[in-house]
Design brief:
Layout: E1 5-9, H1 11-28, E2 35-40, H2 44-51, E3 59-68, E4 73-78, E5 88-96, H3 100-110, E6 116-125, E7 137-142, E8 146-148, E9 164-167, H4 173-176, H5 180-184
Parallel strand pairs: 2-3, 2-5, 5-6, 6-7
Antiparallel strand pairs: 1-9, 3-4, 8-9
Bound molecules: inosinic acid and magnesium ion.
Inosinic acid (IMP) binds near residues 96, 125 and 146.
């Protein structure tokens, strides 16, 4: 039977692309001290790698969103500790899918009168976009596969997987539970 999961970006390719993004940010923000704001929780491995390729001074902070109702409405469940007014803000997300989350977040930040606002997404699911929202820095453009690993989760799990994995058959996700991480980490289980 065909494997129900497939590695789409390995750790080495990820490292190379993340380094390029960090270099682009370093030159675009030279002389400024931006605030890199990670959108929890999917940003974590990506942000940790990204900032180590950003060679200019910057601060790091985080936001946690909660989703409610239809239309991708979001509220800020945990805000940044750093006041963002007047700052150059770089939003960091693991993935932009429909774009609803990012567009709501951009509106939320724009009313705080930030000096500038750009966003970075490791992954941009271009064919799924519903709202046209700018993503100034993107790691990879992808199709509409469901991806796991490197911060992306299913039911809170699999964020720890190195590399990025596509799940070919969502119906089998729960069957994969027992063997999937062990396989990725090279242990027992297939
Ligand atoms: P939005 O549709 O752009 O508002 O994105 C909503 C959220 O869905 C993202 O921030 C992710 O948390 C999640 N998401 C979308 N696609 C995937 C995926 O392929 N894997 C894991 N999470 C995803
Ligand atoms: Mg999620």
């Amino acid at each position: 039977m065909a494997s129900p999961y497939l590695e789409v970006v390995d750790q080495a390719a990820m490292d190379r692309r993340v380094r390029e993004l960090g270099q682009a940010i370093s030159s675009d923000y030279a002389g400024l001290t931006p605030v890199v704001v990670g959108v929890l929780k999917g940003c974590i491995p990506f942000l940790a790698d990204l900032v180590r390729s950003v060679e200019i001074d910057h601060e790091i902070d985080f936001l946690l969103l909660t989703r409610f109702g239809e239309q991708g409405r979001v509220a800020v469940a945990m805000d940044t500790a750093i006041p963002l007014r007047g700052r150059h803000v770089i939003l960091v997300q693991g993935i932009v899918d429909t774009g609803l989350t990012l567009s709501a977040l951009r509106r939320n930040l724009e009313v705080r009168e930030v000096a500038s606002l750009k966003s970075v997404a490791l992954l941009d699911k271009v064919p799924r976009r519903i709202v046209d929202v700018p993503v100034e820095y993107r790691g990879f453009e992808i199709g509409d596969e469901f991806l796991l690993g490197y911060g992306l989760d299913w039911a809170g799990k699999y964020r720890n997987l190195p590399g990025l994995w596509a799940v070919m058959d969502m119906g089998r996700l729960s069957d994969l539970d027992a063997t999937f991480p062990a396989t990725v980490f090279g242990g027992a289980g297939g």
